[in-house]
């Protein structure tokens, strides 16, 4: 099953430490196990564009769609046997300590 893993900031997370940010170790592990399918960092929320259609008109606004202290800063697509494996993988990501990880199962259209 595929899971979308949102990597987000969290003001209540542990203080960031570059020495303890072992993202390369995490990536090497999930890539070697065939779990990692895609992912990347995201540009800052201030560079977001929000698109809405209301009454037939397209409305475009700069900036994030919500006011929040938490920001999505990256994403990964994982192929896991089940939610337990996805949780195990997410718990080893450095941002699980410094921020937060949200897992969502992908809901195929077909």
TrEMBL record:
The record's annotation in SUPFAM superfamilies points to: Dimeric alpha+beta barrel
Q: Which parts of the chain span the membrane according to its record?
A: none
Q: The organism sits in which domain of life?
A: Bacteria
Segments forming domain YCII-related:
1-108
* Protein family according to the UniProt entry: Belongs to the YciI family.
Name of protein: YCII-related domain-containing protein
- Provenance organism: Arthrobacter psychrolactophilus
